[in-house]
Specification:
Rossmann fold; 10 helices; about 35% helix; globular
Length: about 230
C-alpha cells in the first residue's frame, strides 16, 4: 500500500496532497468544489495512480465521502495501492455482469477513515468502447449524490483516448507529470487533447521533483497555461 497519509500522516508530502485538495476545492469559477475529477498523465509512469490514491487519502482524512474509480482498464493498479481487490468491478458493471452499488469496495484504512473503491475488474480488450457506453453515464449519475468527491484514474492521455472519453463527464481534469522525466511537449500536447474535447484542466501535479530545478519547471508550467498545483516529491 503506497499511502503517504497512512504511513507518514505528518509528512510534508501529505501536506502537499492536502494543499492539492484545497486547491481543487476552489478550482471552479462557480465557487463550488468539483464533484467528479478525472486524473490522468501525459505518459506512462508519471505517478498518476499514486497521486490519485493519496489525494483520496487526504479527502478521507477530512471525513469526506470519496469514491475512487479505477478506469485504467489497461493495467489497473489502484486496488494494490489502497488494499482492495481486482475483480469483479468496473468492467463487469459496464458489460452488464454486475450492478451498482454492488461493485463498491468500502475500505476502512487505519488512521485515515474510509475510501470507497471501484477497481477495474477483468481487463477487457475494448476499454475505450466500454467507457463510452451509457452504463458509465448511469454509474456517475447514481454515484454523484452519494459522495463529496469522485476521483477517476485513467490511462495516459497521450497514449490512449480513455481520459478524453471521460473528461466531458467530469467537472475537471488533473494532469500529473513527473519531474525530470515528463517532456514539456508531452504536457503541452496532453493539454491540447483535453481542450479538444472541451475538458477543463484544473491544475497540474508535478511529482518526484528535484527542487533544485524548481525555477525552470515552475516557469514552464505557468507559461503552459495550467493551474500550477503543489509539488509532490515521492
Amino acid at each position: 500500500m503506497v499511502l503517504v497519509a497512512a504511513s507518514h500522516p505528518a509528512s510534508s508530502v501529505i501536506e502537499a496532497y492536502c494543499a492539492l485538495r484545497t486547491t481543487l476545492a476552489f478550482a471552479l469559477a462557480e465557487q463550488r468544489p468539483p464533484k467528479i475529477v478525472v486524473i490522468t498523465s501525459p505518459t506512462p509512469e508519471d505517478g498518476k495512480s499514486t497521486s490519485t490514491a493519496n489525494l483520496a487519502a487526504s479527502l478521507a482524512l477530512q471525513k469526506l465521502k470519496v469514491l475512487v474509480i479505477d478506469a485504467d482498464m489497461r493495467r489497473g493498479a489502484l486496488h494494490r495501492l489502497v488494499g482492495g481487490v481486482h475483480t469483479p468491478e468496473l468492467s463487469e458493471l459496464l458489460t452488464g455482469l454486475a450492478e451498482f452499488p454492488g461493485v463498491i469496495q468500502a475500505l476502512k484504512i487505519d488512521g485515515l477513515g474510509r475510501i470507497d473503491l471501484i477497481s477495474t475488474g477483468t481487463l477487457p480488450p475494448n476499454p475505450t468502447d466500454l467507457l463510452s457506453s451509457h452504463r458509465l453515464t448511469d454509474l456517475l449519475q447514481a454515484a454523484e449524490p452519494l459522495y463529496d468527491t469522485i476521483l477517476i484514474d485513467t490511462p495516459p492521455v497521450n497514449v490512449f483516448a480513455d481520459a478524453l472519453v471521460l473528461a466531458p463527464h467530469a467537472d475537471g481534469v488533473v494532469l500529473v507529470a513527473r519531474g525530470n522525466k515528463t517532456e514539456r511537449q508531452a504536457v503541452r500536447f496532453a493539454m491540447e487533447l483535453i481542450a479538444g474535447v472541451r475538458g477543463k484542466v484544473m491544475g497540474t501535479v508535478l511529482n518526484d521533483f528535484d527542487t533544485r530545478r524548481a525555477d525552470a519547471y515552475g516557469d514552464y508550467y505557468y507559461h503552459a497555461g495550467a493551474g500550477y498545483g503543489p509539488v509532490i516529491e515521492e
